[in-house]
């Protein structure tokens, strides 16, 4: 049971990363590799601040701001520097690795006995793992609501239009460069925040913790879409992303219970994502939908 | 009638300074009066699309000035010009956002050229208005306001593009072969709609077409480009006297 609750808590915190990735990957249609630099950057900034005695709330906020920064760099490289988005992201990701080493001073820094958001006073009375769930829920709910509101403003609609049809957006007077920079900043801000929260949850920051985060975020998005279908309102899709993130964690837990080691996680992550991405193909080929329907119609 | 658009000595050169250097437009001077409906003709490569791009700001001229309503727009970006100029592209996919609904697309268009801030979009307030406007159109868009545009037919998408370009009255409307990708019936419908809206709203409009019949039928003025130069520019009675055969004389390479 404790494994399941801890998994759900982690799923919520990873869900924040997935929400960030949703903005760049699904709305802007960008393969933004900055993620893998932003995530440890958020973690490093947060841990470095906590170790120096900074208030956990402020340290968490700093991890968000750190993410805004990497998003801005990638956005400027892409829009003003005319560097292809994939390469711009890789450049930022690579550069920020050194910055992380500078901030942490070494490859891995622990949070032993330092105050974090997750051991705040009002949470200590809760049973084990529930602090993570409570904090994860509060953040996930607030972010989903704020994003849903934002996407329904004039600016949010202009942002969506930019990702959907850039040429049209420009012809309607939307400054698409600014929209892309804004999107990359908010996206990476959330990813940095997720890094900061997961570092507090895990009790450490590691310069290599970004490897594979792109796949984790994408898996959450795709699993959410597979489970809920694609004909959802935008706000419902944001919820689906968070649910997808929790489901993905549960699948990993299941795999672990089958006897695989944590060392196999990245391979398993990649395989799960690949299978989910190929699902539409399988459905066509093996008529899964028909079998499904027939099962319902003729019990 | 007062001059709305004034193109002064427009020249565009591509690959300047290399062996491939080529002048697409050669010292073009063209004045559009307020309310002019110009059909722009010419062979492929004559410079029609380039001229339209110079006007809408997606290309900048090597020399010359673009003046709209006494304001020099030459250095303005495409985004900034959107305040005054709207366009319908040839490809129905170009003018609409596929993953947004018909109503959402229309809402985007009502704010063309305006500041877009953190105010809620207020889609509900506009729905009745959108329903009323689309109900007047031929292909059933009014029943599909909540449909994602990607699920519409090419004809419906292009009608929507046209509506988006004119829902907030532009100073200048640019049509780049906007019916070329449609079947003959739909194409005819959209051209009739175009003519009707341009007359009713007293729009100033430049329409590129390859259909000589359409060029003769619609608009009050014909301009023919050939090899980067204006070779014919007639209006009113003179235009009405033109025949397809007469026009073809101006199409040389």
Automatic annotation (TrEMBL), chain A:
| Keyword set includes Transmembrane helix | yes
Example GO molecular function: transmembrane transporter activity
Q: Which UniProt keywords apply?
A: Cell membrane, Membrane, Transmembrane, Transmembrane helix
Q: Which Gene Ontology cellular component annotation is one that this UniProt entry carries? A: plasma membrane
Give the transmembrane ranges: 12-28, 57-78, 85-104, 133-160, 181-199, 211-229, 238-259, 265-282
Q: Has keyword Transferase?
A: no
Q: Where in the cell is it found?
A: Cell membrane
Q: According to its UniProt record, where is this protein mainly located?
A: membrane
The record ties this protein, via InterPro entries, to:
ABC_transp_permease
Specify the protein name: ABC transporter permease
Q: What is the lineage of its organism?
A: Bacteria, Bacillati, Bacillota, Bacilli, Lactobacillales
From TrEMBL, chain B:
List keywords of the entry alphabetically. Answer: ATP-binding, Nucleotide-binding
Record domain ABC transporter: where: 5-252
**Which Gene Ontology molecular-function terms are recorded?**
ATP binding; ATP hydrolysis activity; transmembrane transporter activity
Task: Show the InterPro entries listed in the entry.
Answer: AAA+_ATPase, ABC_transporter-like_ATP-bd, ABC_transpr_LolD-like, P-loop_NTPase
SUPFAM superfamilies in the record: P-loop containing nucleoside triphosphate hydrolases
Question: Which Pfam family is one of this chain's hits?
Answer: ABC_tran
Q: Which PANTHER family match?
A: ABC TRANSPORTER DOMAIN-CONTAINING PROTEIN, IMPORT ATP-BINDING PROTEIN
Q: What is this protein called?
A: ATP-binding cassette domain-containing protein
Origin organism of this chain?
A: Lactobacillus intestinalis
């Amino acid at each position: 049971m404790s494994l399941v609750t801890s998994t759900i808590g982690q799923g919520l915190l990873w869900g924040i990363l997935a929400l960030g990735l949703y903005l760049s990957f699904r709305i802007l249609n960008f393969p933004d590799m900055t993620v893998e630099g932003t995530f440890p950057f958020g973690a490093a900034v947060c841990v470095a601040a906590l170790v120096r005695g900074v208030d956990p709330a402020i340290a968490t906020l700093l991890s968000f701001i750190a993410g805004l920064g990497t998003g801005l760099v990638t956005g400027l490289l892409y829009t003003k520097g005319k560097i292809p988005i994939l390469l711009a992201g890789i450049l930022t990701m690579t550069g920020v690795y050194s910055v992380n080493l500078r901030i942490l001073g070494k490859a891995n820094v622990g949070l032993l006995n330092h105050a974090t958001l997750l051991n705040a006073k009002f949470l200590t009375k809760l049973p084990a793992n529930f602090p993570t769930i409570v904090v994860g829920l509060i953040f996930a709910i607030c972010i989903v609501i704020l994003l849903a509101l934002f996407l329904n403003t004039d600016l949010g609609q202009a942002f969506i239009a930019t990702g959907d049809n850039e040429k049209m957006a420009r012809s309607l007077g939307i400054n698409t460069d600014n929209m892309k920079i804004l999107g990359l900043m908010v996206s990476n801000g959330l990813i940095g925040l997720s890094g900061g929260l997961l570092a507090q949850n895990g009790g450490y920051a590691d310069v290599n913790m970004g490897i594979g985060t792109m796949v984790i975020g994408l898996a959450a998005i795709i699993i959410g879409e597979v489970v809920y279908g694609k004909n959802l309102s935008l706000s419902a899709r944001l919820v689906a992303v968070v649910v997808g993130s929790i489901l993905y964690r549960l699948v990993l837990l299941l795999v672990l219970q089958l006897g695989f080691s944590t060392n196999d996680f990245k391979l398993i992550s990649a395989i799960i994502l690949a299978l989910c991405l190929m699902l539409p193909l399988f459905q066509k080929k093996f008529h899964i939908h028909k079998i499904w329907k027939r099962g319902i119609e003729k019990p | 009638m007062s001059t709305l658009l004034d193109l002064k000595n427009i020249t565009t050169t591509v690959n300047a300074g290399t062996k491939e250097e080529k002048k697409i437009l050669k010292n073009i001077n063209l004045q559009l009066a307020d309310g002019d409906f110009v059909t722009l003709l010419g062979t492929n490569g004559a410079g029609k699309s380039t001229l339209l791009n110079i006007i809408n700001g997606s290309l900048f001229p090597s020399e010359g000035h673009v003046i709209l309503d006494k304001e020099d727009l030459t250095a303005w970006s495409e985004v900034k010009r959107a305040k005054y100029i709207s366009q319908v592209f040839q490809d129905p996919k170009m003018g609409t956002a596929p993953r947004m609904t018909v109503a959402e697309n229309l809402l985007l268009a009502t704010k063309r050229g305006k500041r877009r801030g953190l105010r809620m979009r207020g889609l509900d307030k506009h729905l009745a208005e959108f329903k009323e406007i689309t109900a007047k159109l031929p292909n059933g868009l009014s029943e599909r306001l909540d449909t994602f545009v990607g699920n519409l037919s090419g004809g419906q998408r292009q009608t929507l593009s046209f509506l988006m370009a004119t829902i907030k009255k532009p100073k200048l409307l640019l049509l780049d072969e906007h019916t070329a990708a449609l079947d003959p019936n739909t194409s005819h419908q959209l051209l009739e709609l175009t003519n009707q809206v341009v007359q009713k709203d007293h729009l100033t409009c430049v329409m590129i077409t390859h259909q000589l019949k359409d060029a003769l039928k619609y608009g009050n003025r014909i301009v023919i480009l050939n090899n980067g130069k204006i070779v014919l520019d007639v209006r009113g009675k003179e235009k009405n006297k033109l025949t397809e055969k007469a026009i073809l004389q101006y199409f040389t390479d």
